[in-house]
Amino acid sequence: MNNKIKNAILLVCLSFISITSMAQDDDDVIRCWTDEYNAGLSDKPANIQKFIEIAQKVKDNPYQERAFINCDGTNTITIPVAVHFAGEVTCADAACLLAATEAQIQVLNEDFAATNADISVYNNLTAVCPGDYPASTLASNGTCLNFCLATSEHPASSGLEEGDPAITVGQHTWPSAGADWSGYLNIFVSDEAAAGLGTGVLGVSPLVGSANGDGFYVLPSSFGGPGVSCTSGTGINTSPTYNGGRTATHELGHYLGLEHVFAGGTCGADGDAGAVVPGAPTVNDTSPQDAPNFGCPANVTSCATAPTHCGSPDMFTSFMDYGDDACLVMFTEDQAQVMNYIANQVIPFDTDGSKCAEVSNNTVDACGVSCPTVTPMNDVGSACASAIGTLVTDWQASLGADFMDPDGSNGPNAGLQYSSVPITDATFPQTAPTGTYAGDGCGNDVQTWYAYYECDDNSDGTAESYIDAGNYALTIFADAQAPTIVADDLVCNYSVMFACAGDSEGSTTVDGSTEAPGYAGNPTESVEVVTANGCTATFMVAKAACSSTGSLNCPTVTAVNTSGSACASEIGTFVTDWQASLGADFMDADGANGPNAGLQYSSVAIGDATFPQAAPTGVYAGDGCTSEVQTWYAYYECDNNSDGTADSFVDAGNCALTIYADAQAPTIVADDAVCNYSVMFACAGDSEGTTTVDGSVEDSGYAGNPSESVEVVTMDGCTQTFMVSKPACDCNCDAEGGQF
Ligand SMILES: [Zn+2]
Q1: pTM to 2 decimals?
Q2: Pair 639, 593: CB distance under 8 Å
Q3: Do 392 and 399 form a contact (C-beta atoms < 8 A)?
Q4: DSSP bridge partners of 447
Q5: Which of 704, 666, 700 is nearest to 683 (CA)?
Q6: Rounded mean pLDDT of the chain?
Q7: Burial degree of 207 (CB within 10 A; 0-12, 13-18, 19+)
Q8: Most CB within 10 Å of its CB: which of 48, 328, 433, 492?
Q9: E strands within 409-497?
Q10: Cα 553 to ligand 1 centroid, rounded to whole Å
Q11: Measured in angstroms, how far is the CA atom of residue 343 from the centroid of ligand 1?
Q12: Which band of pLDDT confidence, cut at 50, 70 and 90, is reported for residue 66?
């Protein structure tokens, strides 16, 4: 074939490029838009020109140049990958996005390392048709390219943090994520419209990428890997045919410089041998092919049943044909070497490993956390201060599982939090109430616990939003406080003094019994205190020592005035009887009120200026015959300041005592010659009582019966009997009739 004919065919075929490569399979999808996209670029990027120049060297001396791009262990690189979801792909299921991304990258790593299990499809071909499908064509070592989902050194503009997978949602669409994403292999996943593509396009890529923020596109329904199929706004990897992750493998082949195996659309010039882009890298181990294969050619049991174009079996298992994912299983040796070279020498990937240095936190940061919806629960309650913790715990339990965040996944702090101000307050959140009583010890302390739930929307370890969980108005009653015991009088009666108004004694009491002054025993008392709100506690309370110091309250008594009379010998009994008649008020039984216990007596009245004076004697002090009058003024001493001296006196009345003279001994005189005797009384008015002197004559020289018993009765009725001596009588007492 001469050159003119060849050129004519080339021109014809070029005019069919769009037709052949746009050919759709039964699912009405467009397998790849790469040829159309690149053909439409008016200006080839500078790196394309560089790519062509370097490739020309490869072409000029392929064996020498290709030697240094074999996988010999010195040129293995790991390319950081970022995935940008957009358009109909949303955060509805962030886990789905992460799972699909990880599955897709696993597919890339297996396909580019030739460790994919279905590479056996090609091995079977080799077995039945070794001439057309030689083992040497298979890139047995794959490429030297590894791919990692980037986790560190993300662009600041992304909002991603260290550890976040390089996954964005709703930020970037194909063909570029912007210069911030230079150095990454960017994969764009969105609906076609969001990417500016026609309906049904599965994938598109620049024909050799630049790692300047560019990347390739994959339709959401074909993005992922085997076994992953889910929905997040739209179906992810839900295609029944193109769900093996090979769309990305295919487009990545373009990004790394490969053309379709049918490039050029003509049998006359092998497109991937450099016919389409003059000077492009040469792939010599694929047969000439003028159209893609679709579907999944089966039952290839001999060379005769292999798909053919241009009169030779096609390399239909190459990732760069258009078959179903299940039948695209390998890169050829030349394809692998071209990609190794481009990835190593042409595209400025950031391959120093720094972008994959962090362990992934497996969170799609851009999607954040889906915080739960809860219904706030408001409540009130009250308890004694010592029991408030139990009350709060019970309330929290009543809130239910919604508030518990059992796995702690929704916020930086798991479970309920509390603030002292409501969630609507501008200063929310503030420190939680203490639950500790903070009142004055008597009044109530009201604390409102505002419960809320933290939500770390972007999983950066800081709460961005809060969920109102309701509030709890807690009235905290003061606990009972220890009382004091005071001695409230000088005889050491005790009283309990409570700390708060409304406190009272419970089941144990202080009995107020009198303790001995200078008290030393029973130094404490057990007292149960009951507050006005019913809080109780029992205290051992120390008693103050009692030393009888302080001020006495003297008793109030009613003075009793009386009068009486008695013979002198009986006046003592009379006074005693009078005192007894005054009653208990005057007794000062315990002697505590004054320096001198009991009634005292003065000879002058309590109102007298000279009061008190010595008490009357109670002893008759008259002339022996007439009466004596003594007035006894009774009073009570009161030692108000307990200094041992009476400071005041209480009038107890008086008793006017008339003391009669007791009877006095009479004398007997002989009042005539025959010794008649007469009784001579000491006082006028005295007289004989029941016994008398009869005045009979005694014998002269009387020597017997020398005394006479005489009862004397005074005019006041005092009586006494005396033995009175008789004087001797010397008259002749024998004469009858008393004559001498
Ligand atoms: Zn393609």
Answers
A1: 0.53
A2: yes
A3: no
A4: 474
A5: 666
A6: 81
A7: buried
A8: 328
A9: 416-419, 445-455, 465-477, 484-487, 494-497
A10: 117
A11: 18
A12: low
Most confident option among 178-192, 278-292, 348-362, 410-424: 178-192
Please list, in sequence order, all residues whose beta carbon lies within 8 angstroms of the beta carbon of residue 278, skipping any fewer than 6 positions away: 52
Å from CA of 80 to ligand 1 middle: 22
Show the domains of the chain with their CATH numbers. Answer: 16-69+79-357 (3.40.390.10), 369-475 (no CATH), 484-542 (no CATH), 562-660 (no CATH), 667-738 (no CATH)
What share of the chain in percent tops pLDDT 70? 77
Q: What percentage of the chain's residues is helix, strand, coil (to nearest 5)?
A: 25, 20, 55
Question: Which residue in this structure is represented by tokens 């290709």?
Answer: 66
* Residue 529, CB-side half-sphere exposure with 13 Å CA sphere: 25
> Which pLDDT tens digit goes with each residue over 419-452?
999 999 999 989 988 889 999 999 999 999 998 8
Dist. CA 265 → ligand 1 center (Å): 13
pLDDT tens per residue across span 377-397: 888 999 999 988 888 888 877
Contact 247, 239 (CB under 8 A): no
Peptide bond into 727 cis (omega under 30): no
* Residue 701 pLDDT > 90: no
Collect all residues with Cβ–Cβ distance below 8 Å to 515 and sequence separation of at least 6. 487, 492, 494, 521, 522, 543, 546
Gap from CA of 732 to ligand 1 centroid (Å): 196
The closest alpha carbon to 697, from 715, 658, 661, 670, belongs to 670
* C-beta of residue 483 within 8 angstroms of C-beta of residue 510: no
Cα 34 to ligand 1 centre (Å): 5
Distance of CA 170 from the midpoint of ligand 1 (Å): 26
The number of beta carbons lying within 10 Å of the beta carbon of residue 327 is 21
